[in-house]
C-alpha cells in the first residue's frame, strides 16, 4: 500500500529528469483524452445501447415511415411529453418499415398500444405519438414488436396531390393562395361567416331529414325488390312462363312495325297541327285580355246595379202584393172562361182563313187611318156630354134663315138658362 505512492513519485521523477520525455507523455495523455471524448460523442450519436441507460426498447411496424432519420434523435411522446426517441429503422420480411423505440422504463407499454407517426413542422420533421395502452392488454416484453395494425402513418401531401393532373394542382395552388388572402381578416369576418353557416345548416336540416326519409324509403324499396327477385327466382316455371309471354308480346309488337312507322310518319303533321293550335290559343288569350279588363270594370259597377235591382225587386214584390186581390178575383172568371177557350180554339181555323184575306183590305185602309182618327175624335167631341170644364148640356144647333124667326120666342128662356148656368159655375 505504501509502496504505490513511492512508485508514482519515482516514475514522475524519471519523466522529469529524462530529456523531452515529459513533453511526450503530456502529448500522449492529451491524445488519449481527445480520443475518449470523440469516441464517447460518436457512441452517443450512434445511440449505442448500454445496460445502464434506463430505457425500455421495443419496435413498431408501419406501412411506411417517411422522413425518418434515427441519427437526428427524433422524439417519442406520450400525451405531448417527450419520453424517448427513435433508435433505428429497418424493413421487415413483408416490406413494412420497422422502427426501434427507446422510452423511459417507468412507462409500461401494452400490446394494445397505439402509435401515430406525425409531423411536428411544415418541413415534415416527424415524431411518434405513443398511447401505451393498458389492461386488458398484456405488457409488451423487452424488444417486443407491435404489429402494423397498432400504427397509423401520416398521409403525405404528394400522395394526395399525386392523383391530380397539372391543371388541378395549379388550381389548388391558386385556391390555397386565395385562401391565405381571404383568411387574413378571419378574426374580424370569420365569426359572422360561421354564424351565417350555422343558420344555413339549420335551414338545411329539413332537407337532410327529407333525404334521410328518402334513403330509408329506398332501402325498403330495395329490400322489397330483393324479396320479389328471390320469390321469382325460386319459381322457375312461373319465370319461364313470364319469359315466354314477354317473347310473344315482343313478337306481336314486331309484327306491327308497319303501324308504328305510319304513326311516326303522322307525328310531324300532328306536331304542326299542335303548333297551330297553340298559336290559336295564344291569339285567343290575347283577345281574352280585353274581355277580362271589361269584366273587371263591370265588376266595379255590379254592386250598385245589384242594389238598384234589389230595390226593383222590392217594388215588384209590393206590386205583386197589390195585384193579389185582383188575381184572386180573376181566378173564378178565368175558370168560367175556360169552356169558351175550347170553342175559340175550334174557331181559330176559320179565323186563319179570314185573316189571310184581310191583307189587301188593311193595305187599302192604312192611308185613311189619320182621317179616320180625326173623324172619331170630332165625333166623340160632338156626342160627348162633357168638355174641359166638366159636365154640360150639349146639343147640335142648326141655324138657317128660316129657323131664326122660330127661335125668337125662345130667346128669353135661353137667356135665363145661361144666367142660371153661370151662377152655378
UniProtKB/TrEMBL annotation:
Keywords noted in UniProt: Membrane, Transmembrane, Transmembrane helix
InterPro entries to which the protein is assigned, alphabetical: Mce/MlaD (IPR003399), MlaD_Phospholipid_Transporter (IPR052336)
GO terms, molecular function: phospholipid binding; phospholipid transporter activity
Domain Mce/MlaD: 56-133
Transmembrane feature ranges: 21-43
Superkingdom of origin: Bacteria
N-terminal signal peptide: none
Keyword Transmembrane: yes
Pfam families, per the entry: MlaD
UniProt xrefs under PANTHER family: INTERMEMBRANE PHOSPHOLIPID TRANSPORT SYSTEM BINDING PROTEIN MLAD (PTHR33371:SF4), INTERMEMBRANE PHOSPHOLIPID TRANSPORT SYSTEM BINDING PROTEIN MLAD-RELATED (PTHR33371)
Protein name in the entry: Mammalian cell entry related domain protein
Amino acid at each position: 500500500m505504501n509502496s504505490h505512492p513511492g512508485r508514482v513519485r519515482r516514475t514522475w521523477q524519471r519523466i522529469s529528469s529524462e530529456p523531452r520525455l515529459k513533453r511526450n507523455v503530456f502529448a500522449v495523455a492529451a491524445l488519449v483524452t481527445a480520443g475518449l471524448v470523440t469516441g464517447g460523442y460518436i457512441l452517443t450519436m450512434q445511440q449505442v445501447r448500454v445496460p445502464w441507460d434506463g430505457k425500455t426498447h421495443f419496435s413498431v411496424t408501419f406501412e411506411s415511415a417517411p422522413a425518418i432519420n434515427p441519427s437526428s434523435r427524433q422524439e417519442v411522446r406520450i400525451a405531448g411529453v417527450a419520453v424517448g426517441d427513435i433508435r433505428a429503422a429497418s424493413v421487415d420480411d413483408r416490406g413494412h418499415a420497422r422502427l426501434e423505440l427507446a422510452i423511459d422504463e417507468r412507462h409500461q407499454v401494452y400490446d394494445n398500444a397505439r402509435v401515430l407517426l406525425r409531423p411536428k413542422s411544415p418541413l415534415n420533421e416527424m415524431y411518434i405519438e405513443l398511447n401505451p395502452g393498458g389492461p386488458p392488454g398484456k405488457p409488451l416484453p423487452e424488444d417486443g414488436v407491435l404489429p402494423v395494425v397498432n400504427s397509423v402513418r401520416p398521409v403525405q401531401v404528394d400522395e394526395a396531390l399525386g392523383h391530380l393532373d397539372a391543371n388541378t394542382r395549379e388550381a389548388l395552388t391558386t385556391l390555397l393562395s386565395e385562401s391565405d388572402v381571404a383568411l387574413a381578416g378571419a378574426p374580424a369576418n370569420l365569426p359572422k361567416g360561421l354564424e351565417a353557416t350555422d343558420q344555413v345548416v339549420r335551414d338545411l336540416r329539413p332537407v337532410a331529414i327529407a333525404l334521410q326519409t328518402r334513403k330509408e324509403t329506398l332501402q325498403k324499396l330495395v329490400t322489397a325488390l330483393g324479396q320479389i327477385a328471390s320469390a321469382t327466382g325460386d319459381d322457375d316455371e312461373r319465370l319461364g312462363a313470364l319469359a315466354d309471354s314477354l317473347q310473344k308480346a315482343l313478337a306481336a309488337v314486331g309484327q306491327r312495325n308497319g303501324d308504328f312507322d305510319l304513326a311516326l310518319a303522322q307525328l310531324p303533321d300532328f306536331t304542326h297541327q299542335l303548333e297551330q293550335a297553340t298559336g290559336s290559343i295564344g291569339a285567343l288569350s290575347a283577345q281574352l285580355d280585353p274581355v277580362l279588363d271589361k269584366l273587371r270594370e263591370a265588376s266595379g259597377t255590379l254592386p250598385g246595379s245589384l242594389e238598384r235591382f234589389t230595390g226593383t225587386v222590392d217594388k215588384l214584390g209590393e206590386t205583386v202584393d197589390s195585384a193579389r186581390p185582383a188575381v184572386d178575383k180573376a181566378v173564378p172568371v178565368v175558370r168560367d172562361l175556360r169552356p169558351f177557350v175550347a170553342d175559340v180554339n175550334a174557331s181559330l181555323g176559320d179565323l186563319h182563313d179570314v185573316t189571310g184575306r184581310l191583307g189587301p183590305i188593311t193595305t187599302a185602309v192604312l192611308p185613311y187611318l189619320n182621317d179616320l182618327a180625326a173623324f172619331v175624335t170630332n165625333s166623340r167631341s160632338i156626342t160627348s156630354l162633357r168638355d174641359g170644364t166638366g159636365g154640360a148640356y150639349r146639343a147640335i144647333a142648326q141655324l138657317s134663315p128660316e129657323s131664326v124667326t122660330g127661335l125668337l120666342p125662345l130667346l128669353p128662356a135661353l137667356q135665363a138658362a145661361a144666367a142660371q148656368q153661370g151662377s152655378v159655375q
